[in-house]
Design brief:
The chain is an alpha/beta fold. The strands form four sheets. The protein has a five-stranded mixed beta sheet with strand order 6-5-4-7-8, sandwiched between helices. A five-stranded mixed barrel has the order 11-12-13-15-14. The chain has a three-stranded antiparallel beta sheet with strand order 2-1-3. A hairpin with a 4-residue loop joins β14 (684-693) and β15 (698-702). The longest helix is centred in the middle third of the chain and has 47 residues, at 255-301.
Amino acid sequence: MENITIAKIAQELGIKESQITKVLELTAEGNTIPFIARYRKEITGNLDEVQIKSIIDLDKSLTVLAERKAVVLAKIGEQGKLTDQLRSEIEAAEKLADVEELYLPYKEKRRTKATLAREAGLFPLARLILQDASHLQAEAEKLTSEAFPTAEAALAGAVDILTEAISEDTKLRAWTYHEIQTNSAIYSKVKDGDLDDKQVFQIYYDFSEKVATMQGYRTLALNRGEKLGILKVGFEHHVDKIIRFFEVRFKVKNNYIVEAVQQAVKKKILPAMERRIRTELTEAAEDGAIQLFSDNLRSLLLIAPLKGRVVLGFDPAFRTGAKLAVVDATGKMLTTQVIYPVPPAKPAQIEAAKKELSQLIGQFGVEIIAIGNGTASRESEAFVAQVLKEHPQVSYVIVNESGASVYSASELARHEFPDLTVEKRSAISIARRLQDPLAELVKIDPKSIGVGQYQHDVSQKKLTESLDFVVDTVVNQVGVNINTASPALLAHVAGLNKTISENIVKYRETEGLITSREAIKEVPRLGTKAFEQAAGFLRIPESDNLLDNTGVHPESYPAVSRLFERLDIRQLDAAAQARLKAVKVEELASQLGIGQETLKDIIADLLKPGRDLRDSFDAPVLRQDVLNIRDLRIGQKLEGVVRNVVDFGAFVDIGIHEDGLIHISKLSKDYIKHPSQLLSVGDLVTVWVDKLDVEREKVNLSLIAPNESN
């Protein structure tokens, strides 16, 4: 069975069986996905994290499928009804649902009307109906009983037996399933429009789409509208066609057979297939939504940090005042303050707020102001822009504050800042989110970050697993400074967990800075395996060994020594870099006793020690003045930042109160299947205003220049 599983994984993923075997062996040995992807490339054939996870996930699901098949085969075998053909069909099934369909006729059932009829001895009468015997009434009279006292009751019982038999016919059910998938439609009607006060589901009040072309986000929208009681959702079938297909299976046709077919189709098979298809549509939609959320999260986590800047975090509010926090270039809090910059504050309070903000800028050398994009954000932006006219050296950025309130009320935030209010903690988080998005966002449940669609309507278990994988992957790809990282960030490093991460921080606090990777071994509970998995992803800028601040794993240090000796490198100056660039990897790898992929990675790390892959991505847009929707004109060219990518388009921050929408039809002149083919969260884009609704503050944008439109 194991060889069959590996062959199936290879077929589905397009990966060699030998690679799959190695991945599963490495995983069984306790190796993490980031470690396998980065430091075992020669063994896996250079598979990346996503491919490795796909192998592991598919192996788990196929194992579950194989175990269920074994149980079903055993149960049917116990009944003495397992034929060679049935065994082959079960073993060939590729879905759990298909296995259950094949098992249905043999499954132990609750007592039904058909069960009672069989117990009353009406099975021979059901057989006579199929033969269309002319003396059915007389035969039914002979089979009356206390449970079925009349001929009509006996015949109805026989029809119940036929109905159940027809409804459990696996071939008929399979045909119906395919027919619905191919030719049926899903519809929705308004059930209670009063519950939809914002008209969110208006487009689904009278909606119909073929099952075959149903889009994932529409499936999730229908599910939510139905759950809220706003929509009624159903199927439109070619019922007459389905019934005709069933009826021609019988050699004779009489009223009893017609009735049995009608009941089997309408009351049994169609409802069962509808449930199955809606489940499958929902699962596919959830998988798509989760993948989109994961892609967006990855892009968000990889937004370039603004390193070495003094930042003022500005958490806006109307009535309770704006909470400010100044953090230094390392993210350390310098001060916090509350000001009242916008109405309903009185004019005197607003003037005082201007002076207080100016004083903070001057006193602490603030270089950038990070404004949260929540309540009162744009009003606060206008206030900040006015103050910055006197401080032209300072810029501001609108920062997506989704999840900041979740963090600020968390146990982690209380531990970091026990003496501060929730709002002031939020201001610190907003400032740090600009300085190092990754380090700050890992403190927040990814589901609260707000870069998905319908995230509350999908399997929370699957969503959490997928988002955690994204966070783990990005953290390890970027690398973590062991002397500055929070426990929350360290916990995502391969091989580490919450306890070890907290022990690292405690060790730093009591013993001082960790000055070498070798010293990491002194951290309590950090054993040999954890060190092996984590060491290459932990950076130590303070170390005397430059390799400790690279992605080179300690296991490769001897090979680097041999490399330096062979190339006569004593320091990484320009001459040394030139020699490294000129290396013929194929020849030198074997001489050094390491793999070619490992040598390539070593050279890349040596050419840019301490590099941060996020530096190659777009940096945040810095602004100095505010933009009002009334300033916009159709066709106007603007710069913006992609805030979210969804199935039907992308939302872009262009500096007004609400993000503008680029509909998928306005992304390209050429056909694209999904917006993620062109855009990612954090991308800087040039857009043109396509439509304006000033009163509702709605802006539609286009990536296509007006003179390029067809």
